[in-house]
């Protein structure tokens, strides 16, 4: 096993917890990990062999999926809204640099505005500390979601309780 393959098999850095969020599609393409830091939800994953393009960098589609989940899920925990379905209305992304096989990807989101019907947010994604993507999105505030196993997973150390409906 070469160094990149070994890195790809490594788990998350210390302090990250498994986060089965984003539905079956995200679970299939993960695993994703989460932590609560400085009042924000951070998500991450390790770039494995199934995440890469022929150039052995993380596939853009994987990064876009990750960005979509990051900036919508963060709204559930960083804004004063109940847990609800947030279908994507618009998603913009800019690829800044490649994320090589084995690199640790992490993202942070900022919630820009919440209205009665919409959430506006943006995020920055890095690979081993170097910026690789920025994204922004608009999400429609849909129906409330039932509690699920992922709710327990995302009760992370230091995270405040989520607002109730």
Structural features:
165 residues; seven-stranded antiparallel beta sheet; alpha+beta; 4 helices
Overview of the structural elements:
With 165 residues, this protein is an alpha+beta fold. It has helices spanning 3-9, 23-29, 60-78, 149-153; strands at 17-18, 33-37, 40-46, 88-95, 104-114, 118-127, 130-140. Strands 1-2-3-5-6-7-4 form a seven-stranded antiparallel beta sheet. Strand 6 (118-127) and strand 7 (130-140) form a beta hairpin. The chain is globular and about 45 Å long. The termini are far apart. The mean pLDDT is 87.
Ordered list of secondary-structure elements with their pairings:
Blueprint: H1 3-9, E1 17-18, H2 23-29, E2 33-37, E3 40-46, H3 60-78, E4 88-95, E5 104-114, E6 118-127, E7 130-140, H4 149-153
Antiparallel strand pairs: 1-2, 2-3, 3-5, 4-7, 5-6, 6-7
